[in-house]
Every structure is written in C-alpha cells, then in structure tokens.
Specification:
Elements lengths: L1 H19 L3 E8 L9 E4 L4 E4 L5 E6 L4 E5 L6 E4 L2 H6 L1 E5 L15 H7 L12 H10 L8 H5 L4 H43 L1 H7 L7 H8 L4 H6 L3 H22 L1
Parallel strand pairs: 1-7
Antiparallel strand pairs: 1-4, 2-3, 2-5, 5-6
Helix pairs in contact: 4-6, 6-8, 8-10
C-alpha cells in the first residue's frame, strides 16, 4: 500500500513537471501608490506554483494562456488576473494593486505608564515583563509573610510551620523548573516548525492541504506524533508529504467540530 502511495506521488510530481514545460517564463511588475512592494505573493492557481516580488515589485513565474494568477499582500486588496496570449507573446504582465483602506473610529488612549502613575500603582514607570520573566517573577514572589523563627519555635506546631514553608518553596521551584523546560521546548518546536514551513512553503499548506494560514504551526504540531520530525531530518520528504495529506483530513474535521 505504501509503495503504491509513493508511486502515485512520484507520478503526480512527474505530471506536474511535464505540465510546467508547456508554460513560458513570464516577467511581471506590480504598480501601486504604495512604495513597499516587497514579498507580495504571486500564485499561479492553475499550476499551484508561486513566487514573491522583490523590493521593486518585480517577479517572474511560469504561465500559459488562461492560467489564473492570484496576487496577495497584507496592505493590498487581493486580485486575480487571467493570462492572455498577448501576455505570453510579450513575456510580460503589469498588474495594478489597490491599497486597503481602514476607517478607524477616533479613540483616546492614555499610555500605560501614565495610567499606572495616575492610579499610584507600584509598577508605574516599569517596563512590563514578558514570557518567562513574568513567570519567574510570579513564582519567585514571597506569598508567605515573614515570620520570626524564634516566634515559630516558641508556639505549638512551630516545627511543622517551618517544614510547610520549606516544602512550599520546593514545590514552587519544581513548578518553576517545569515552566522553564516547557518554554524551552516550545521555542525549540517553533524553530522546527519554521524549518518545515520554509522547506514546504506556506502555499503548500494553504492551497494544497487547505489549512488556514493561522493554523499551520498547530497542524504541524498535530502531525508530530506521526514521527514527521525524524522523517524530515532524514530528508524523507515524500513520507512527510504522505502524512500531511492523511492528517490534513483529520485536522480539518477537528477544526469543524471546534467551530
């Protein structure tokens, strides 16, 4: 079964390569009032191949008549263009993109540090802590009032009270250690996910597997139990693709149930 699956994927790849031979390298340019034209996505929806623009809005992509090119950028309204014979004969295409305009209601906000000072908060003027620093601060706070050792020893249950304080601190340290380890694991996983996304490209996940762009990392995490990390490092990319195809169906059903 696995051999037939790999054979199918190989044939699919071969057909894709052959179909690309019918296409001509088209040189294009983006025109817009926006000066920043770098890294705009240009996708041939017909061939499922894509590229990005350079800083001047220039790009090149394989295409043939009746192919549909899809243009997308965060600051622009997405646009589709059908390739004509004239485009192919001239080996060029020029596309105008319109900048998105957002109407914002007027809102008055006070800076966080000024608000903190106005309320006389103890953290006024301090930079807010982030990530693990916030966790370290939280778990290193002394939540037990300072008690004089002599007083503890001078009352009933004094030794037990001291033991409870010490054991409580140990629990906090164990919990803090676990949080630090979890954060380190999360950072390592983020790097691995980024490496996988760089290799397969986001367009593969979005347009081939139909995974929402915001859920790509979550989908890769969903596939981790299927040993994709080891397979990826061994460069067994066909096996990884096979797993992605199978798991994408389960993952999309999972998303539907969550909605």
């Amino acid at each position: 079964m696995e051999k037939s699956t790999y054979l199918f994927l190989f044939l699919l790849y071969s057909i894709s390569v052959t179909s690309q031979e019918d296409r001509t390298l088209l040189y294009g340019s983006i025109i817009s009032d926006e000066k920043d034209l770098k890294n705009l996505h240009v996708i041939n929806k017909t061939s499922q191949k894509g590229t990005i623009t350079n800083s001047e809005g220039l790009f090149s992509i394989l295409a043939k008549p009746m192919d549909t090119l899809f243009f997308r950028g965060i600051q622009f309204i997405s646009k589709e263009v059908v390739i004509s014979k004239k485009n192919i004969n001239n080996n060029s295409i020029q596309v105008e993109l319109i900048i998105k305009t957002n109407e914002l209601k007027e809102v008055y906000l006070r800076k966080r540090e000024n608000m903190a000072r106005a309320l006389n908060l103890p953290n006024a003027g301090k930079e807010p802590l982030k990530g693990i620093d916030r966790k370290l601060a939280y778990y290193s706070q002394e939540k037990t009032h300072v008690v004089i050792l002599k007083t503890l020893l001078g009352q009933a249950g004094g030794i037990d009270n001291i033991y409870n304080i010490i054991s409580g601190n140990r629990k906090k340290h164990r919990k803090l250690k676990k949080l630090i380890e979890d954060d380190k694991l999360l950072e390592r996983n983020k790097l691995l996910y980024k490496e996988i996304r760089t290799h397969f490209k986001d367009d593969f996940f979005i347009y081939t597997l139909k995974i929402p762009s915001k859920k790509i990392d979550d989908f890769i995490k969903f596939c981790v139990p299927k040993n994709i990390i080891n397979l990826f490092h061994k460069k067994s990319y066909l096996q990884v693709i096979d797993i992605f195809f199978k798991q994408s169906k389960l993952y999309l059903k999972k998303l539907q149930h969550e909605e």
